[in-house]
Amino acid sequence: MAYATEKLREEKVFKDPVHRYVHVRDRVIWDLIGTKEFQRLRRIKQLGTTFLTFHGAEHSRLNHSLGVYEIVRRIVDDVFIGRSEWNESNRLLSLCAALLHDLGHGPFSHSFEKVFHLDHEQFSQQIILGNTEVNQVLSAVHPNFPKQVAEVIAKTSDEKLVVSLISSQIDADRMDYLLRDAYFTGVSYGHFDMERILRVMRPREDQVVIKKSGMHAVEDYIMSRYQMYWQVYFHPVTRSGEVVLTKILHRAKELYEQFYQFKYEPRHFYSMFKNELTLQDYLNLDEAVVLYYFQVWQEEDDPILRDLCRRFMDRHLFKYVEFDPAKEYRKFIDLSALFKKAGIDPEYYLVLDSSSDLPYDFYRPGEEEERLPIQLLMPNGEIRELSRESEIVEAISGKRRTDHKLYFPADILYDETSKKNIKRQIRQLLGIR
Amino acid sequence: MAYATEKLREEKVFKDPVHRYVHVRDRVIWDLIGTKEFQRLRRIKQLGTTFLTFHGAEHSRLNHSLGVYEIVRRIVDDVFIGRSEWNESNRLLSLCAALLHDLGHGPFSHSFEKVFHLDHEQFSQQIILGNTEVNQVLSAVHPNFPKQVAEVIAKTSDEKLVVSLISSQIDADRMDYLLRDAYFTGVSYGHFDMERILRVMRPREDQVVIKKSGMHAVEDYIMSRYQMYWQVYFHPVTRSGEVVLTKILHRAKELYEQFYQFKYEPRHFYSMFKNELTLQDYLNLDEAVVLYYFQVWQEEDDPILRDLCRRFMDRHLFKYVEFDPAKEYRKFIDLSALFKKAGIDPEYYLVLDSSSDLPYDFYRPGEEEERLPIQLLMPNGEIRELSRESEIVEAISGKRRTDHKLYFPADILYDETSKKNIKRQIRQLLGIR
Amino acid sequence: MAYATEKLREEKVFKDPVHRYVHVRDRVIWDLIGTKEFQRLRRIKQLGTTFLTFHGAEHSRLNHSLGVYEIVRRIVDDVFIGRSEWNESNRLLSLCAALLHDLGHGPFSHSFEKVFHLDHEQFSQQIILGNTEVNQVLSAVHPNFPKQVAEVIAKTSDEKLVVSLISSQIDADRMDYLLRDAYFTGVSYGHFDMERILRVMRPREDQVVIKKSGMHAVEDYIMSRYQMYWQVYFHPVTRSGEVVLTKILHRAKELYEQFYQFKYEPRHFYSMFKNELTLQDYLNLDEAVVLYYFQVWQEEDDPILRDLCRRFMDRHLFKYVEFDPAKEYRKFIDLSALFKKAGIDPEYYLVLDSSSDLPYDFYRPGEEEERLPIQLLMPNGEIRELSRESEIVEAISGKRRTDHKLYFPADILYDETSKKNIKRQIRQLLGIR
Amino acid sequence: MAYATEKLREEKVFKDPVHRYVHVRDRVIWDLIGTKEFQRLRRIKQLGTTFLTFHGAEHSRLNHSLGVYEIVRRIVDDVFIGRSEWNESNRLLSLCAALLHDLGHGPFSHSFEKVFHLDHEQFSQQIILGNTEVNQVLSAVHPNFPKQVAEVIAKTSDEKLVVSLISSQIDADRMDYLLRDAYFTGVSYGHFDMERILRVMRPREDQVVIKKSGMHAVEDYIMSRYQMYWQVYFHPVTRSGEVVLTKILHRAKELYEQFYQFKYEPRHFYSMFKNELTLQDYLNLDEAVVLYYFQVWQEEDDPILRDLCRRFMDRHLFKYVEFDPAKEYRKFIDLSALFKKAGIDPEYYLVLDSSSDLPYDFYRPGEEEERLPIQLLMPNGEIRELSRESEIVEAISGKRRTDHKLYFPADILYDETSKKNIKRQIRQLLGIR
């Protein structure tokens, strides 16, 4: 089919601070980038509320999506090409899946998904298969092509090698976001020798494998990932931003359900409140729209909604203390009671937040969120799982680390113009002066 | 006065990708950063529509403002301190002016200022002197302090040395934006040895001067600036984004004046349309709000507003050709006539845009936008204007470069389903196939 | 004492690719840099034979020594200054010890020390305490000052905090060489956020401690060190260069002991051969001198010396196979016998080389080469050893990793013009085709 | 011919700090790198005495040669391949010429060439065409191949396009050394977007041309070159090192001609002193050998040779003042006379040194050292010389800049234990206190 192989008359390049240049020669890729659904990713930040902690982290998901595409392009065009284990006819499928893998993300995904029970992976499927410009482009390749792309993104495709390029424990997605998020935040973690890793990737029937000689670069990548999770992604201030944001959404929904009269009607939210969200509604929702509402809601009559919106907009976030929910359950109950007595609704102002990550894991069938382990290609042709070769990786393999924090508005608790004694009790329980 | 000199118990640092860390030890600075007027700068991009060309350029003015503050902090705390020509009591004034110098910027400043005859410098003054959180913080230093800061930013202050730190041909503002914009776009121009320049800066009564030994670093800085202007700031695609954006604003205003019934009322715009903009109205206006309207206006009945908004949101911008307004004036008239015949309103769809810059200039009294020339401090203590010492700078000094382009929607002109012959005539005149 | 506190009229700076600038304001430091013993470090490579593997690794020990000085300068002048636990009178002692800590290194230290039973630490002592320009400068500070500096470098000083700046598991020496060696080799390992680590260092009576908030940067540093050891310092090709070099020295010594008549008399080596090395002899020995002899020895009559020198100069090094000395002892005996039968002296051409490293260790009293463990300063003021807080470090703590390789001249073994069958047997035993 | 196209079973890579990796797939290239004549370049510094100013500049010519090869490899394999104007059969010729272009350089080329009237370009020819390992490898490609390579390096080849890759005003040689020297010295000048320039290079019959769209990157490159010349290559301290070195060579030659009895006979220098230098003598001469002699000569009886060698080894170089030879000729005569009166031989201790450079030039036929101007490929296919399009380049084009300095041993002049009055007169004339 001509369209699938059509090349642009002249290669297009995007200047990219992470990969230097993103190269586009395929007409299909160029057309996909031009769709309104892809351009919408410009209005969704890659790292949600992280910009409140790291002011450089203002980059969008479009930014990242182009990067993932470029990495996969280099793998298939510079490394896999001509190797017998690589099916060249999967090239375009790989590129499209890479470019579109985050297409279903909405604004501040994490919070919206939690409050409204959304799933960005399902929206990715809908956008690719539904009545969209993206679908039109993909269908022009082949009527069955949208489905193929969607299956790769959903990890249900039979093309397991292609799936592993996008979703495994060492895929283009992770490599791009680690490098990109490190670049934009400015942290020095997150760097590893991607060029080296790409050079030692080899196609195998079921997944990408890594030549043994590149093992140390992979170790470095895993350590980078570990550091990025705890230094950046789970940063307590970022999580505070998310806690406040989540509570705004909760409050707005609750008010809606209580027939509260909004001064500024949340028209863009209604279908979500009613659980009747259409694809078009979802596509209309971007971070500009959300921030618009947060701004106007600063003038609402409801004191909680108003306060939380102001906190988010002006970065007057919640403070936190370490908290062990297993051992300190009783304390939480007591604090809730005291908050109520002090006239501070604990539902919105006393929030336990937990973060948890596995730096690397070998395969554990049946577990949730299972990702393919990293396989090494030994000099003798054998395949061995990474943690059996690397002492460093073996040492940290499967060790889940979890962190719990209790968030609250310290400013209110320190304001002794009212409920002075109760607030002192609260502060004592929280262990803050 | 205690507050002016109060230090934080522990220094706060922001991770910054350009300067590595931004250090805050002064209570006043910390409080200013926490004001809502300063936090608002998070919702205004430093480079307006540049992100449409360089996808990395999504950084905000808050990002840049912290950077300018940090540069001035290093100058006064690491270089000027203890020198007899430096009045240590101007330290806080310098830091505050650096931090707040861009406070008055609104969304997509360039376009808004043009269409609505606004002036961000005036808004900076209003925010600093008006009823704002920023004013409260500054007033707590000294009742006269807001005025002093405002005068430095307005360049009317008698503290000419302080003014020159923020506004001259080699000031902290320019140094930060060149480095920062190069970093976020990923271009390799824009780098110069700022650390070296800072080390050779010396305070003099009227302005900062540069030790002769640092002249080459300054040459490099001027060349960087030149390259950034033509490679990034005046990039024709960026300007296309600006052209479309400007036309959206024009159209909305025109519709309002014609009593058009908006489906989505532009409440945030009314006072601007009416020329009755208050400070509060202005502060409520950020890029999230603007993008919200652009999104909902995609559903308006007016075909021009709808079309232009879609173009902006989906990055279907105008194409361009080189155009010499002096020589080709006649052609412009003819094209306008043909556009009308083709049913394409030339007012909105045929736009001449010009960019112009002086890479460096020695002092020319009386000219508009005059900036202080760069003065070198010679080994013998004499002061000499840069272009008299540097052959490179002398060669380019005062050479204004201007670029004119004519913008139009190529897709419409290629669509031959209607007005085929007229469109062919237009394309021929434009010199596009 | 005036000289100890004398400042240069104008600060001197060296452009340094790793720390950007090395700053010198103290007259004593400036004078030390100008001594012939310090300048000699220009003619000794920091990484010995590593340039044979990584062609960028041509940097000298002077390069590194300036770097260590600069790091300590930043610690004491930017971080420790003014803290009650820091004795400002130890400032110059710290700077001098940092600058001079590697002063006793000779050419290709590792090999020379092994063959001639030298000890660079003893030479450091002799240079500082003996009749040298360095001693003159230090004595001018105070007659007892050379002894104080020497004790810090020997780790016998009572100023344990100062010692820990130069020799602990996170000292200025290690931080500089990791960053510097990564920079010059071009590998992407070896980077960590030194600026962050410096900022969280705190003086305590016995040693430097690290604020808990910097723990992740320290983890990153430890992983960098691990990677640099296995990727760069223990690279098998580098070790091959060292094996050949060591064997040249062995051979020259043996020939001398056998009254061999050298065409080019090794005058610079005689006192070493005789175990009568004086300080002056040692100082005259640099890598230029060693390479001079290696060059002229390419023309010697002795075939082994000649061959080994050519190999080193032209980079025709030995190849290697993995080898387990514990399990394969018998094989080594057999190979030696076969080498003899083939007319290849196994003493020089069959070499077992082992490398071993501990990535990090908590304190184990009585063990050789014990270095201070890293101590964290907890928010509550308590001190805790790193591996008790960091799961990553705990996982790798105390895990010694060792690598054994067997080196041999593959070219000779493949040359079948003589002893064809024996060579085939050898190759079979070695497991090379 | 099989050898010319033979590929290695597995690509070899060298880690390179400037280009990240140097890739070798051709057997011929691999064999050339392994020759003793190429390996000798490890013992010759790329920047001569620059390491005395910038301590990082210790990198060798081998380092640079690999870089030039890699750039040409990328041009021919990534950019030229498949273009009709490119003759693929010139590929290997280009790669070999790039790798070997500096083969004839000796130790501290500049000084040796001046004193002994040598010419490194002639030695390049001799090494390639003479009885060497390099010649053997090249001859195995084709008996005429060494001559072809030699002609490209000598710029006498008819393959003008290939010549222009190695020697023009924007060739692989210049691009590599600017980037590399900037990297190793650590200066921030010298950076430009090489990747961009490579992408817009196009083959034409007579030379490489640059697409107009890359003009700004080329401007940046020219400015980088300008800055590197004046900031690094012509640095007055570097030139001081060269002045001292040149005078050592002069003195040694003079002593030889006066039948002086050297304690340490300069065997490696004899044939040079006698003007009977053979190729083998030249190849035996590297910087280790030169430094060996300088070290032993520190013990010679001749006070001038001894003193100069100590100055060079211990970096006690000459100081300098600005000097205009045209206007101040009389002063030079007077100074010489005073030096003699003070017992300081002006022949060795009063040295005028001039540096001069053209940042860029359009073509001026008949001028010495003429290099091809840079040609732009315009969108319409026309070719235009760079300075006709670029205002910046036009402004500096053909502007030669020259700098004269007078060097002398300040320490002797300040030593007032003898000839106090004459020395004062000298210092007064020199304008130093």
Automatic annotation (TrEMBL), chains A, B, C, D:
<dbReference type="InterPro" id="IPR045509">
    <property type="entry name" value="HD_assoc_2"/>
</dbReference>
<dbReference type="Pfam" id="PF01966">
    <property type="entry name" value="HD"/>
</dbReference>
<feature type="domain" description="HD">
    <location>
        <begin position="61"/>
        <end position="178"/>
    </location>
</feature>
<dbReference type="InterPro" id="IPR050135">
    <property type="entry name" value="dGTPase-like"/>
</dbReference>
<dbReference type="InterPro" id="IPR006674">
    <property type="entry name" value="HD_domain"/>
</dbReference>
<dbReference type="GO" id="GO:0006203">
    <property type="term" value="P:dGTP catabolic process"/>
</dbReference>
<dbReference type="InterPro" id="IPR003607">
    <property type="entry name" value="HD/PDEase_dom"/>
</dbReference>
<dbReference type="GO" id="GO:0008832">
    <property type="term" value="F:dGTPase activity"/>
</dbReference>
<protein>
    <submittedName>
        <fullName>HD domain-containing protein</fullName>
    </submittedName>
</protein>
<dbReference type="Pfam" id="PF19276">
    <property type="entry name" value="HD_assoc_2"/>
</dbReference>
